[in-house]
Structures are given as C-alpha cells and as structure tokens.
## 1
Amino acid sequence: MGIIALLLGGVFSFFASGHPDGLEKVAEDKGFIGNALEYPFATVMPDYAFPVENEFAAAMLAGLIGTIFVFILIYSFFRLFSIKK
Amino acid sequence: MHIPDGFLGPGASGSLIVAAAALAGVAVGKVRQGMFARQKAAALKTPEGAEFGGPTVTKLTKHGQSLVFRMAVVGAFIFAAQMMNFSISGGTSGHMLGGVLAAVLLGPWAGFLVIAVILVVQSLVFADGGLFALGANIINMGLVGAVAGYYVYRFLFKKIKKEAWAAFFAAWISVILAALACCLELAVSGTISLSVSVPAMVGWHFLIGLGEGLITALVLVGLNFKEKTNE
C-alpha cells in the first residue's frame, strides 16, 4: 500500500485533472469564487508544484515529498502518544 | 471540497476551528484507549528501549503498535490519492476524500485524525484549503466524511454483509453529506443561500461520490479486507 501511495503521489499525480473541483465549480457558477482570499502566507509548494523549472518534475517532487512527509508526520506524531501512559 | 479562506465568515470559521480542535483531543483519547491494555507482567520492553516494571503495567498492545504504522501508511496513501483529480462531466473534477476508507481500515477516530493531519499538511504546505477554513474542512471531511461515514458503513454492513458494497455506498453517501455540511457552512456565513447551493453541490458531488465509492471499494477488495480482522 505504501508503494502504491508513492507511485500515485510521484508518477500519476502529473496526470491529475486540472479542472476546477466540485466546490470551485459551484463557486464559479454561482459567482462567489471571487470571495476566495489569497493564502495568508507563502507556503513551500503552493498548488502542488515543487519550486523547480520542469513542470513534470515539479508535480512529481511535490507528490513524492508530500506523501513521504505525511507518512513521517503521522508516524512520529502518533508514536508520541503511544509511548507513555 | 477544500474550502479556501474568504468563503466563510469569521464566526463560522472560528467556531469550527474550536470544534475541530476539541474533536481532535477526543479522538486522540479514544485512539489511545484502544492502544493500551493493563497487563500483569514483570518487565516489558518497548521498541524504543524504555522499560516498565511492576505487578501491573499499562502496555501497548500488538494492535496498538501496528495501528500507528497503519495510520501512517493509510494517511500517505490517502494524501496521494487526494492529489489525483479525476475529471467528471462539464469541465469539473473531483478528488477522493478518503474518509470512509480511513475509518473502515483504522476505526472512526483514527480515521478522523489521519484525515485531519492530511488537511493540515495540505493547507500549510500546499495552500490547498484555507488556513482559517481549516476547522471547517476538518469537520466536513474528518467528522462528516470519516466518522459519520463510518457509521453509515457499519449500518450498511449489518444490512448487506458485504464489506466492499457497504463501503462503496457509505463512501458515496459520505461525500454527499460532506458537500451538504459545506453548503450549510456557506449559508451560515451568508456566502450563498441553501436553496441555490444545495442542488448544485449535491449534483456534482453525486458524481464525485461515485468515484469515491469506486476507489474505496476497489482498495478494500485489493487489500482483501475482512471486517472481523479490524475488531
């Protein structure tokens, strides 16, 4: 399952559809997409693009790093809860 | 489904952040409870090397030990799956929420926590979903998507006795429920009235939920998931 996650994150994320998702679509149709604010601070990888030139590599790296990051974060975070009573 | 900042009023986003934080605390407690068991043992060694002694010790059970690892794997998988936007008709796409999948594999509260961590990472690192709307997103996808979706799954599983089918319909329903929760939050904030948003949101998420249900059921079939093994 972990390997599939890495494959999904690293390779196939590039083929993800760029269409607006359900909520964005409704917001566009009903005219409140303009209410959306910019994110309050600059994040590392906005819109799932790692800051490199190549578009493919950007999506791939963002996917890979994100997937690994989530794994490590959850594992270490909940490991803390499981150590001491 | 990730609500950006600006769609919700300060009252709605603020109270939902508080609610989400409180729920996370409850969830950690519930998950911890399931990890430990009081046992009589002389000395026990945890993998970290810490030693416990004495007549009764509270010990991490096998289930508890593996749960943390399984949470991390499922979390990484759902994070990756959420990046895969699939096209549906009319120039719209949807992506997986993974709430029911996480809750079925890990239990409702561990599933809630996994989804919550994913949403925090998506917001802080990838600017997907607003910072102030994080509470709303955790409630929609974690509480409604995972916890409520889990109980829909349990109900359906008792009726139809097939894990994959129950998960398929529960995942489908959970997406629509999450969309409805989203509509409610938007209406409370005065962004858009329920009569306009509900038909539109439910229409799209009816289709997105179909994809969600399919992926959830396929993953469970692929893992050869059996309900008994999780109890």
Note: The mean pLDDT of chain A is 68.
## 2
Amino acid sequence: MTSPDTNVGFVLDSAQQTRVAGLMERILDELPQGYSVLIDRAGRIVNVCHEPVGVQLEALSALSAGCYATTNELAKVMGEEEYSLLFRQEDDNQVYVWPVADRALLVVLLKTSRGVEMLEERLGGPMGRELVAMVRTAKLPDRPTPPPRIVIEEIPYEVRTRTRNLTALITSLQTRMPEKFNDEIKRVLLKAREEIIKSITAQDWRRTMGVCEWCRQWLFGQLNLSATVEPRKILPRLYIEVFSYLHGVLTGFISSERLTDLYRKTYTIVAKRRPWVCLSDSCVTADGIDARILWERAAEQYSDIMQLAREFVPAVDEMVRELVRVVYVGRGGEGRNRVLQGAKEILARYRNELLALGLEGVAGEGWLLLNIKSE
Amino acid sequence: MAILQEATKEVTCKIVYHGAGMCGKTTSLMYLNHHLPKSQRGRFITLETPTERTLYFDFLPVITEARGYKFRYLLFTTPGQDYYEATRKLILKGADGIVLVVDSQRNRLTENHSSVEILEKTLYELGQHPDLMPRVFQYNKRDLTDIVPLEEAERLFNSRHALSFPAVARTGQGVYETFLTIAKMALSKLTSPEGESRMGDMFKSTVITADESMKFKLNLARLNEEAGAAASLLVDESSGLISHRGEIPMKDYETLGALLACNFTAAQELSFNISHLGFTGILQRGAKWSLTASRVDLRRFLVVITEGYGDQRRLRNALGYSRGILAAQLHQVDSMSPSRLRRFGELFSSVSHVAISDMAGGA
C-alpha cells in the first residue's frame, strides 16, 4: 500500500486512511484477480489495494483521470449528470472507473470479465455509499484555490467592482489595524476568498456577490466597526465640508453672482451624466452645492442605502472635479494642487468612519472618493 | 492529420499548443475564445480539474468559411506538468501544426528547454520527424520584468529557425498573429503533397470523396438498425468526427467527436499500460444514455449511442460486422488519399489564403 500523496485534492487522516483501505479490500473481496487504485480527480494516487505488477501506476492514474475528465464532459454534452466507465478487452482485462463523490475516482482492474456485475452491485450498495461518504468528509489540503480560469472581461462589471472593493477594504483594514487580524479572522477570510474564486469559476455571479457582502459585514462585526456609522450620516457631512472649503477658495477670485451660476452649471453637467442621483437642483445655493439635500432627494429613489452610496460618491466627486478644474483655470497648477491637498486633509479626518463603511481606500470604477487625478 | 471531406467541402486540421506548465497555453485559447466572433468558434472545453493546471487538454474549435469551403481548426493544449507526460503524448498525435509557447521569464529557462526537448522526443516516438512538423514559437509573458531578450530566446530555443512572435497571452498581444501563422502553415503543408508524403503514418491526411461519405453513412445507418442504437459515429483519434448517423437530442456532434477522440485515445494508452493490448470496447454508462466505443483500425473507432444499457449481445454482433466493412473502406480511403491530395493542392492553396484573410478581418 502506498502512502497518500500530500498534494492530492483531499486529505485523509490515518483513521480514515485505514478505513478506506479496509473498504477497498472488501470491495475487491472474492473478485477474480482484482486490484484497485483510489485517485483524486487530477490523477494523483490516494491509495492502492493489491498493487498490480508491471503497471506504471502514475501513468495509469493520469490516464484514468484524463479519460474520466473527458467522460465527464461527454456526460454534460449528453445532458447527463455522471457516467461510469468500463474498458473491455474481450474476456481478459477489464478496467472499471467509478466516480467517488465529486472528488475522486476508483479505478478497478479485473483480469476477467466475470465480476463486473458483482463489482457494480457493491459500488451501488452500502460499500460504495460508505466510500463516497468518507471521501466527501475528507479535509481539503492546506493550499489556496487556484485563480479562476476565466478572462476578466467575462466577469460582469458589478461583480468585478464588488470583489475589488472588498479586496481594497481588507487591505486597508489590515494596514490600519494589523493587531486585530487574528488567526481566526485570517482563516475565515481565506475561506471566503476560496469561495469567491470557486463561484467566479462556476460563473455563479449571485453567489460571488453574496459572499462578498457576507464577508464585508462579517468583518465589520468582528472589528466592531459597523454598529455606529451609517452612510447617510457620514457621506453628506464629508461633502458639505469639501464644498464649503472649495467655496472659500473660489470666492477668492470669482464674484458671488458668477459663483452661483458656476455651481448651477456644474450641477447641470453632472446631472446629465448621472440623472439618477441628481434629481433636483434645489441643492444648488449661493454657498455651493448642498450635499445633504442632494442625498435626501436621491434617497427617495433608493431602497438599498449602500447602492445609493455607490452612486452618490462618484456623482459628487465629479462635481468636485469640475470645481477643481475652475481653480486650475484661475489659479494654475499650484492652486489646484493646494485645493486637492485641502480636500484630502478633510477626507483624512473622516478616515475612521469611512473605514467602518468600507469606503476608505476605495478608488476605482464607481467609487472615486476624491481620488482626482492630475490633468 | 487533416481530414478533407469532398461531400461537405470541409477541411479539419489539428493545432496543438505545447509548452511548460503555466506558460500561457490555456490563456492563449481563452483569449481566442473570447475575442473571435461566435460564428468562427465552437464550444471551448476546459476539463474540470481541482488545480489550475491542464489535466489532459483544453479544446477550442475555430471555424472559417471561404469559397464554399469550411475550414475547421481544432485547437488543443497539452498538459505542461511532467506528471501528465502520458496524456501529453496523446494530444500531439496527428497534429498538423504546433505552437510552442515559451515562458519568457529568466527563471523558467530550464522548464522551457525541457519542454522543447520533450516535444522533439515525443514526435520521434510518434514516428514523426520534428523538422517536417509546421511549428511557430510564441514567446509569452513579454510584459513581465526579468525576461530573456528575444534574440537570446531565439538562440536558446529556436534552433530550427521557425517563425516566432512576442506575446502577452493575458492581454492577447501576439496570440492572434501566432494562431494565424500556424493555421496558414498547417494548410500549406496540406496543399504540398511532397511535404504530406513525408509525414509519419499517424500524421498523414485523409481525403474522403462524396461517394465514400455516402457509403459511411449507409453503413452507420445499418449499424444503428442492427444494434438498436439511437446514433452512431465514426471518429478519428486525432481529428474527431468523420461521419455520423442517427438522432440524439443534443446535436453538438463536433464537440462530441473531439471529446470521444481524446477519450478513446487515453483509454487505449491505458490499456497498453496494463497489458500491451488495446481495448476492444469501452462502455460509458449514464442514467439515460450509454456510449459503446470499438476500434475499427489503427486510427479510427466507432461509437454507438444507445438509450439505457441496450442489448449488449446484439450490439456486439452488429459492431463486429460493421467494423470489418468500415475498416476495408477506410483502408481504401487511406491508399487513395495521397494521389487525391495532389488533385486538391492547387485549389486549397488559393482557398486557404482567402479563409485566413477573412478570419483576420472578422476578429
């Protein structure tokens, strides 16, 4: 009997290993000159019962796995769930390949055609069910799930954004509070990562988004961040402060009459691009754009507050960017850099609250948060 | 080996992407699958594995039409890891062209060397001189740092001075150019009877006339009747489907043929591993359909699809009878193919040029 390869797709502990070996013996009991190999779906050997003489086991395993993988694909093309596989050599060698759960294959070699029926009976009965149960409950090895075999363009925009946001959030939280990331949190995050990769590979987008959202909320719960902060409190306040600061700068070189006109034009430009957020120009005042009114009007249209936040941030950021452009025209590059620096200082004061919302550090498609690039 | 069907005006070629593990073979196919128009590609198959590595093969059929002819390129990747040497050899069988994907990173030099050596060794083992096999180099991952300069890569790997392209499979740079070039070279080989005649037995192309196609269909129809089968397929080990007859609900015969070809080849190799004798039959059984495969000659086999388990004795008898007749017909096809190819040479050289140009415009 060979010892299990540590690279296989599942790990049997010593007790499970003994039980599997015993079961494989019982399956072959009284079958004429039989031997069997349990392999994972990638063709790596887990256990051998009655090692055959003169047969290269690695080649046998790789070929069986390759052959069964095509059989599995054939089953899909034929609209079936799974196939068993039997190779016949008239009345001599018979090879029977049987799928064990969705993790392994049992390759049984028989020297005569007699015994195939008995074997099928055993595999379909309690012995087969016991083997399936044991393989199904075996642990996964300690190695990360490989990246999904899918090109980025095939992933819907919303899913891409969610996964990116989650990654940015975790990275940001880890940088800011490394002491809170204990082994348990790391373990759960790794498991969530594997789930996300698996669901992306299976193109199960609903599940991907569900795992992302669950992971975000769980993480907030673990770090005691989610209870006190709400987007409707923090986002309008942040942008009110930013607009107020910009107003102060702009009044330095633009008259108050022209300023009101400028705010209205800025609002109109953005409203054309993002009409679902900019629902009423009542937010435009002589002192700037009132982010609270803008939020409240838009909130009437949204049932999901986080969805609103996702739409609100880029819209208001665009307004800020338009106004920064005016500063650039009036005060040059130096003036613009100073304004940007000021806006970022305001943002820094809100960092902890943004962190709790999962917004801090997020800068990408949809989420800009004052990440205004130099022009 | 390519198959030319006069009746349907179809040409099928097999292109294999070979290279070390993780060098970008699958990514190249994924790029083509994503960027070719739907009308020019079939179903992309990547066998499910518990790791990111290719277990046996990935498969993508690329199709193009010109002047009434349909050109079908069956693109396969080989598994890169040494563990899968046994399955890698099977995919190279009957190739009409090979893309050698080289990982340009300096720390992968040994793996690349080994992959080039393995290719040459495998081709010799399969009875094919490597010099006669159309091949193109795709120097992949050119966007990474610490990569080998192209001149050095050429000196290190491309001793036979084959055409080569720098590429980034992830973004698609160079992938399409590489494919177009190898497709053109594979067709050029096909249209050069002198080149074709020097190919090894497993790599020789087949020309099937309209009359022979009809005979195949009649024989398959009789087999269906005698075996009580829903459908039957005559399949070539490397180029997939030759002929089929009967009705099954799923009509993707092309994918079915390619999968069966790989499935049967692996089963044969497995059999040789056990007893140095090929299998006489393979039975794949599901809840509704059973597939029984049986060898016809060295390169082809029959697959009979029955509802449920079918009457196995009746099926065996019918298979035994049909195998003999089909083997004789295929023997005639093989003996006539070299002279027929000469007849097709001039025609295909012009058509293939148009076919490739059209595809370049469509992508």
Note: Chain B is about 45% helix and 25% strand.
## 3
Amino acid sequence: MVDMRYFAKRVLGFLILAVLGYCVSTSLLVHFSPKTATYLFDQPWLKVNEKIAASKGIIASDTVVVGGSVANQILPFNDANYLTSVGAIRVAGNYLLIKNTLDRNPHIRTVIYMIAPIPLIRNLSQQRTHQYFVKPFYTFEHLDELNKHKDLVELLNKNDFLWFNLFVPFKLLSMDDFNYWDGKHSEGEILSKESYDWLVKMKALCEDRGVTFNLVSSPVPQYYWKENNECQIIKEQVKGTELETLFDRYFATMVLLEDSVTVKYGHMKEEYAIRNKERLRKEILSKLSNFNQLNASSKNEEAQ
Amino acid sequence: MLFNSIDFAIFLPVVFALYWWLNGRRAQQNVLINLASYLFYGWWDWRFLVLILFSTIVDYTIGLWLYRENHKKTKKILLWSSIAINLGLLGFFKYYNFFVDNFVSNFQFFGKHFEPSSLDILLPVGISFYTFQTLSYTIDIYRGKLKPTKNFVSFAAFVSFFPQLVAGPIERAANLLPQFQRDRVFDYNKSVDGLRQILWGLFKKMVIADNCAALVNEAFNDPSSEPGSKLLLIAILFVFQVYGDFSGYSDIAIGTARLFGFNLSQNFAFPLFSRDMPELWRRWHISLSSWFRDYLYVPMGGSKGGHIKKARNLMVLFLVMGVWHGSNWTFIVWGGINGLYILPKFLMNTHRKYLGTIAERKALPSFTEMFLMLRTWVLFGLSCVVIRAQSLEDAWLFLSRIFSSTFLIVPSASFSEKRLFFLIFLFLAVEWKGREGKHTLEKFMLSWKGYQRQVMYFVVFVLILTCAGGTQQFYYFQF
C-alpha cells in the first residue's frame, strides 16, 4: 500500500504540474507570439486571433481593410493594415476588429469592409461559430462589448460551458467544440437581421470617429447572382434605410467571376487567384474610387 | 464509454481507487471488476448487457458440463451447442441484414421481386470479440487443454473484463482466467509502465488516427478531386489511421489492465516495420490471427499436405478473417486479396523469412529494408481501400483513379497536411526507437534521466490536448 500511495502521489503530482505547465505555456504563447501559436497548433481560431492581435497594434497606414476569406485571396495577407480573416466571424467579428483598430489608431481615415454576399446573408447560428467567433472573440477584453447585444448573448449562452472560452487553455483543447447551427437559414430576408444590425453599428462607429466607411464586395461567381437574383432582393431590402448608400457602393464594386474559376463558398481556384489577384484588387479599388467620385459630384450638384 | 472520453477519465481513477482499496480481498475485487465492466459496457446501451450475460451463463454451464461428461457424443453435442449459440448470436446481430440483402438481390436477378421485413438491428459493441473469447473457453475444455472454473464471478469477469471487452485483445482463458483466481499485488513499476502505454495509446488514437481520418474521409468522399499520387498516399494514411486507432486501443487496454495487476497479450508487434506481407500479418492483430490459426486453420490441416490443400486452407483462413471484420462483400474481398498476397510466399515456403526485429540493434534501417517496408505499406494500403470504400464499385473507382495518368502529378499539401506528415514522422521515429520492446515506450526512455522522461510525457500530453483530431469512434468497434 506504501507503493500505491507513492504511485498516486506521483501521478497526481505529474498531472497537476502538467496541467499548470500547459495552461501557463499556452497562454503565454498565444498572447505574446500568436503566429507561432498558429503554426504549432493549427486551429482555425488562431488565425483570427492573429488578426485580433494585429488590430490591437499600431497600423502605419491611414486605411484599414477587414473582410472574409475571398478578400484574403486577392489581398496581401501579411500587411499590417489588412485584417481580413474569414466570413465565419460575421459582421460582428469584423465590427470588433474595426473597433479595436480605431481605438488604438486614431489616425485612420478609411475603413474598407470587403466581404462576399454569403457571410452577409448568414448569421452566427452556424456550425463554425464556436471555432471562428466564440474562441477568438469571447474574451475578457471583448466581453463588455458583446454583452451589449442581447440577441448575441442569448445565442452564445446556448453553450453551457461558454465561460470556459474566456481562458486560453480551454480554447486550445482540440476536442472543444459546440454547434450553434439552428437548422435553418434566415427566411424571408436575404440580408440577415443580425448582419443588418451590425452593419448599422459599424457605420455609426466609423461616422462617430470621422472615418469613411466603405462596404465593398469581394469577387463573386456569376451563377450566384444571376440565378438567384439575390442582388435585386437585397437592394429592395435596404431601399430607404440608412444602409442604402452603403449597398449602392457594395454592388457598384462587385466583380463577377466566370463560374469555372470558382470553387465552394465562392472561393477562387488557387491558381486563378494567384495569377489575377493584382488585377482584381485594382479593378475593385478603381470601381470604388469611381463610385465615390460620382457620389461626391452628385452630392455637390445637389448642394448647389 | 470510450477510452478517449471524459466519462472514462472519471471512471478509471474511481474504479482503480476502489479496486486497490479492496487489496487482499480477491473475491470482492472480482465482483468490483464485474460491476465496473457491466457499467462500462452498459454505458453504450444497457440492453447489450442481456446478451453478454446470456453468453456468459451459457458458456459457464456448458464448460462445467463438458468437463464432467465422459460420453464422447454428448461432449460433441455440448461443444456444437456452444458454437451454435455463440455464432448464432453473432450471425444474427452482425450478418442478418447482409444475408437478407444478398438473398433479395439474388431473387431480383431471377426476376422475382419481394421485400422481406427488414430488421433495424443494432450491432452490440464488441460482440465479435467476447464471442470468440468465450468460444475458445469451451473449445479448450473440449480438447482437454483447460479445466473449467467453478467460480462464476471469475468467469464473468474473464468474459466482461472492461479494458479488453469491446475491441480485444481476444484473450484465451488459459492466460486470463487464472489471473482472476490468484491474488493481485500492486506493482509500482508495472503500473507506471501501464500508464506509459496508455499515454502512447491515446497519442496514437487521438493525434495520429483521428487526424489521418479527417484527410482519409475527405478523399474517399470525393476521390475524383485528387490526383492518383495523392490517393495512393491516402491509402497509406488509412493504414496509419487503422493502426493508430486499433493498436492505440490495444495499448490503452493493456495499460489499463496492468494498472489492475493483469497481463494481457500483445496485440500488435510494430507491424508498420514489416518487410513483407506474411510478417505484417504475424504482427497485426495477433490475438485474432492466432485465434483463427488455432481454432480454424490448424484443425483444417494447416500447412500440411499438398500445394492445393495448403492454398485452400490459407485462403479459407483469410476469407473467414475478412467475414469476421464485417458483413459486406468488401471485407470478404479484402480478406481474399491479403490471402493472395501471402499465397506465393507460402507455397514457396519463404513466408517465414522475416521473423526477427527489423534492423536489430541498429539505429536506422538499410535502404533495402526501407524499400521493403514501403512496399508493404503500399500493398496493404491498396487492399485496405476495399474496406474503406462504401462498396466494391467505389473501391474500384478509387483504385482506378490511383492507376490513372494522374498518378504522375506531384500532389500538393496544405499546411494541415504538412503538419500531419510531421506528426507521423515523429510518431514513426518514436515507434522505431521503441520497436524492440513489448510496447513503444517500454524500453524507449530507460536510459533517460527522470526529468527528461517527465518532459517527454508532458510533450505527449500537450500534443494530445492540442493536436487531437475530431473525436471519433474507435474504428474497430464496428467489427
């Protein structure tokens, strides 16, 4: 029995030290070297975490770009002012990225949100919400902001163990997952109510800080809009609302792609994206600039 | 209750503490093992308990009766009753739908259409394993190799012993039963070694097998999107998946049993380092292949007789092993392919060329040995495509894609894939270093200092926590 007690003590001692060591080392790593953490653990949320860390740093440029994974395909991912991540963080996640950036970088004058239509249509009741939104954004730092949104809190609280996600070591457990998918897409409205509300907040945030906010579309496969006519429905949906101009710009900057060069979720085929990223980026930015010039001159005319 | 679940992480220490608290009270320890095993098994579905109890009572009774009976004919009747009941249960639960489906399609072939009442039969977990364990008990008594036990509790514990109940190793009564009938003494070194084996088993299952599974599943869902070269790699990864999964399970089972003072038989002897297919089959799922060798192959005549008889016996052995694995033609074909792989060497009597450990006492294998190992992975991987595919048609599509012109395309690898290859490389390196032991970590770190070993355990522990693939059932549970 002496052996038995010694064994129990050793095992328990090892487990306590191992758990402590794991908690401390992973927390330090994720906090101080997010890129190394992404490399070592290869978990989806760590890529978003890198963008959150970047949003809390100093950005040299006066323009910051946020957006989804299709935008990532045509933008220089590693430049500090490109905070594009994945569509699954939804508008809410991008709002938090913009807020972090503007809080620490008052010199920023322009925010571009480059996003494909699908993430705008969907809400956070999705299978990937836990990995892409909860794990990176549900932190003590964002808690106050998140708690202001009753619908969001209600949704996130479906997970009884949500509080675990406030602590890095739990988030790193690869078996930690939760499915927020409610089994239905938003019916009767193409732009989800959740996206609409967060876009309104995003616009207001930028206006409050005197920052120009541009909602821009990343390249979209042709079939998506031609067959479903969703473009027209969204236009109707936002007509007369405070988002109307925002979406006018969104559709004006839209570049349609041949279906053959796209794959699932509207992503471009890798080779095509590499060859054409420069051209597509220029095309979208020139469309944006044309629209803004036209818009400015029509406003001038109206004023005169 | 899965070994890689929170439930088991609570269950094991509780049972372990209670068990050793009863130290010196063997009968009570056996009762505890029974209760714990039934709880462990009933965690899946309590209805399964009826089956295992029935099987236990039948074989316990027949075992005693067989031993007392002197009349040869009655003995034979008793033996065949046990075989019929055990295989009947197995056949009903595992093969009913297979037979009905084939029966219907044969009738349709002749223009007759009818729909038999299909049964939504739930396959009881581990039935193929414990059925074979109890069968060996009655057969050994019949052959006079074993005395039956009068102690029902010990016998029930032998049948239901939770570490190896659902996926083996399939234990023989001659090895395991006597261990229930003698006092167990806590052995510190044995328990530490058991924990090492559990840790490595969890790594194999959760890090290697589950991550391979994600890649393998994706490729098998849509093989046309990958070049042939990548599909061949996937076929090999499937071998790693099944090995990591099943040998991982065996490691956890054997390690757990050691914590309770029991020695289970080795089930895998580093088959990935086999130089040819006969060697692989001597090292893969040893408890099953030796079961079939002793209770099917040898009674049929084994390797005695002419070439035709030898070939027949070998092919029957592999086809039956295929059937044991699953109620689908894919398993039968898989068994057949593996039989055919071995047959030429077997007939030329070169199948026992590689009996020892590869590159014994050497740090690295020679180029020839590396080539031979790679060849074995490819051959086994190609045969395993058949069991991984949903049907023979799907397997054919997969295999024909491998051998198409796309085989010449150099496959690309995503970051996750590269990371998985790195983990596999680490895993193979550790397995290689530990290949002369009974399990990987047995001798691997013996020369290391205490703190170095602790660091190694910590690294494996963190890898399990952070790099594990999505929680997956153990692959062999379906068998």
Note: The CA atoms of residues 19 and 463 of chain B lie 31 Å apart.
